[in-house]
């Protein structure tokens, strides 16, 4: 491959570029899909990359996450797909299953006006059956993590012989997670005639060498991101499951002192649904989206400006150019998947030197989007708790007090009702305070003034740790031979052994990245990690589900199966939940599984590929 590269440096503009997507020679079907999702002007990386890829040239794109690079490679691929070819034409490698799913969703969105386009996500943790069925039926685009792609190549279930396009998304992150060898193996097993696009936030020596070896005269495009958020905006996020978002939004509306608010939803249907539910809860809310006619949109915005409307529920495209002084809060009901959209959304508040608040709802599986936004905007988001019942009740009581105070200020009306209450007290012999309480019930109606306390979570049963009571206070246990053994895991955790260590040059970050990706674990699910010469010890939650353990059992680090098992302090067979065959059985090997029915693959050195 040629090592010469043409280099283009692009400053990301603060204002949208004057060109449109129609200027980039994309087909009508793709342009129609872009109009549906509200895309009008290409970002810097898109404007520079799309024409180059459409011309058939390889690309090295240096850009931060959140600059719009998914569309930069997805749109040219979709535009040139051959729908009659059933074997995969495009392969996108991503470091995590979350990113793989996001890229898949983007492809499906951009191909919405092309009939018969099949996109398949391939990642660890998902059953092979679904993936194999889809591959047998035929797919045009495969988006996957390197480990699972290698599994399919080893099994012969993924045919890349007719591959035309290969994308390495977030290449530097794949290297950090220990996928360098897998990526090079995949590259070596694809046709030399393919077109390659490599995207990375940085250009370490390994990626530079990889681009020189596997890319053909690539054009290097660098986007110097200037995506920033206003210092006047307090940025927070709330981790909440999808099913509880509306309840969370209602509590936030109760406790936050807001003037006007915009709630952003990802789709037109979501905006209508949110607005309808808010109105049912007594809030003045309205939706604007692509289906709303311009006169109605202007009327709604004017109502927001005048104070007749407090909450506007909008899609990105509908809120474009919206400037209303009284917007004090922006809520991302659906957190955006790119930093540019995030900056645009929260920029609706905190304008002209005023302060503002931005709150983003994040499902547990979307935590990575928070990190992406923080990296791209160079601003840390603060995690906030769900407002408690006590906080909501304090706010409700304060508002109730305000209503009473306002009513007491109307002396003439109070005087008339005072005589009516006195009449009732005389004739029914009821204390005045009880009459006041009864009138409050009448005014409140069927809705409860105060919320019931949240139910207490069930007590977690204590787990008796293996060997409990044998560890000494000095932090270790002495064995029969006097050797020091590891400290016991902290409460609620268990120690697992994996079959990679210093000899495989494994690092803690690779272990965390691989296990988190395959098992859906969070960073706080990891305890101490000890790397030994031939193996490593990792503290994980003691109550991992059988499904999670199943997914973890097929994990590979640096191309080697980790052979996860509970650590007993001595060599033993791989952790397996199959019934014990008993002491008299000669075969004590764990039952074979579909995802580990082959020997561990030995590392492939460069010399192995250069023959």
Automatic annotation (TrEMBL):
GO terms for biological process: cellular response to cold; ribosomal large subunit assembly; RNA catabolic process. Keywords: ATP-binding, Cytoplasm, Helicase, Hydrolase, Nucleotide-binding, RNA-binding, Stress response. PROSITE patterns: DEAD_ATP_HELICASE, HELICASE_ATP_BIND_1, HELICASE_CTER, Q_MOTIF. A motif (Q motif) lies at residues 19-47. Residues 248-392 form the Helicase C-terminal domain. It catalyses: ATP + H2O = ADP + phosphate + H(+). GO terms for molecular function: ATP binding; hydrolase activity; RNA helicase activity; RNA strand annealing activity. Residues 50-221 form the Helicase ATP-binding domain. Belongs to the DEAD box helicase family. DeaD/CsdA subfamily. InterPro entries: CsdA_RRM, DbpA/CsdA_RNA-bd_dom, DEAD/DEAH_box_helicase_dom, DEAD/DEAH_RhlB, DEAD_box_RNA_helicases, DeaD_dimer, DEAD_helicase_DeaD, Helicase_ATP-bd. Its EC number is 3.6.4.13. It is found in: Cytoplasm. SUPFAM superfamilies: P-loop containing nucleoside triphosphate hydrolases. This is ATP-dependent RNA helicase DeaD. The gene is deaD. Residues 448-492, 563-611 are annotated as: Disordered. Residues 19-47 form the DEAD-box RNA helicase Q domain. The keyword DNA repair does not apply. PANTHER family: ATP-DEPENDENT RNA HELICASE DEAD, DEAD-BOX ATP-DEPENDENT RNA HELICASE 47, MITOCHONDRIAL. Its main location: cytoplasm. One of its GO terms (cellular component) is ribosome. It comes from Microbacterium immunditiarum. DEAD-box RNA helicase involved in various cellular processes at low temperature, including ribosome biogenesis, mRNA degradation and translation initiation. Residues 448-490, 573-600 have a biased composition (Basic and acidic residues).
């Amino acid at each position: 491959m040629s090592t010469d590269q043409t280099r283009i440096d692009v400053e990301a503009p603060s204002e949208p570029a004057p060109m449109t997507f129609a200027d980039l020679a994309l087909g009508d079907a793709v342009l129609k899909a872009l109009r549906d999702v509200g895309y009008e002007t290409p970002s810097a990386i898109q404007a520079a990359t799309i024409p180059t890829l459409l011309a058939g040239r390889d690309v090295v794109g240096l850009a931060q996450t959140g600059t719009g690079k998914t569309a930069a490679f997805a749109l040219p691929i979709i535009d040139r797909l051959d729908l009659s070819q059933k074997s995969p034409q495009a392969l996108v490698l991503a470091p995590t299953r979350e990113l793989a799913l996001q890229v898949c969703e983007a492809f499906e969105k951009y191909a919405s006006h092309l009939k018969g386009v099949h996109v398949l996500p391939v990642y660890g943790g998902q059953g092979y059956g679904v993936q194999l069925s889809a591959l047998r039926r035929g797919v045009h685009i495969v988006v996957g993590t390197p480990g699972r792609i290698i599994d399919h190549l080893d099994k012969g279930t993924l045919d890349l012989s007719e591959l035309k396009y290969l994308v390495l998304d977030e290449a530097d992150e794949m290297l950090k997670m220990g996928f360098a060898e897998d990526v090079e193996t995949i590259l070596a097993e694809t046709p030399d005639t393919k077109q390659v696009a490599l995207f990375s936030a940085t250009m370490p020596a390994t990626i530079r060498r990889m681009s020189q070896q596997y890319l053909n005269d690539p054009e290097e495009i660098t986007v110097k991101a200037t995506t920033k958020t206003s210092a006047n905006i307090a940025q927070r996020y709330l981790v909440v499951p999808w099913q509880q978002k509306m309840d969370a939004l209602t509590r936030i509306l109760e406790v936050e002192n807001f003037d006007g608010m915009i709630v952003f939803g990802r789709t037109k249907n979501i905006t209508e649904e949110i607005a309808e539910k808010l109105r049912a809860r007594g809030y003045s809310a309205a939706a604007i989206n692509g289906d709303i006619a311009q006169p109605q949109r202007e009327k709604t915005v004017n109502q927001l400006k005048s104070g007749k409307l407090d909450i506007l529920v909008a899609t990105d495209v509908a809120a474009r150019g919206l400037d209303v002084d009284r917007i004090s809060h922006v809520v991302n009901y659906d957190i955006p998947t790119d930093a540019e959209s995030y900056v645009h959304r929260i920029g609706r508040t905190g304008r002209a030197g005023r302060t503002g608040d931005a709150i983003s709802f994040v499902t547990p599986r979307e935590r990575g989007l928070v990190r992406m936004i923080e990296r791209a905007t160079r601003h840390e988001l603060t995690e906030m708790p769900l407002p408690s019942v006590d906080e909501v009740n304090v706010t409700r009581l304060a508002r109730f007090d305000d209503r009473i105070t306002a009513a007491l200020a109307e002396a003439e009306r109070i005087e008339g009702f005072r005589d009516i209450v006195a009449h009732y007290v005389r004739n029914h012999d009821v204390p005045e305070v009880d009459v006041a309480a009864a009138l409050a019930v009448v005014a409140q109606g069927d809705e409860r003034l105060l919320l019931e306390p949240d139910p207490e979570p069930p007590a977690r049963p204590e787990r008796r740790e293996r060997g409990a009571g044998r560890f000494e206070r000095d932090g270790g246990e002495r064995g029969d031979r006097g050797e020091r053994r590891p400290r016991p895991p902290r409460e609620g955790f268990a120690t697992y052994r994996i079959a990679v260590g210093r000899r495989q040059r494994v690092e803690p970050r690779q272990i965390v990245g691989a296990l988190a990706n395959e098992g859906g674990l969070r960073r706080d699910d990891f305890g101490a990690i000890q790397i030994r010469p031939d193996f490593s010890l990792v503290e994980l939650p003691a109550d991992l589900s059988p499904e999670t353990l199943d997914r973890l059992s097929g994990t590979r680090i640096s191309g080697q199966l980790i052979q996860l098992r509970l650590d007993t302090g001595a060599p033993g067979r791989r952790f397996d939940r199959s019934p014990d065959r008993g002491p008299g059985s000669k075969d004590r090997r764990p039952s074979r599984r579909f995802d580990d029915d082959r020997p561990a693959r030995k590392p492939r050195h460069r010399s192995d590929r250069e023959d």
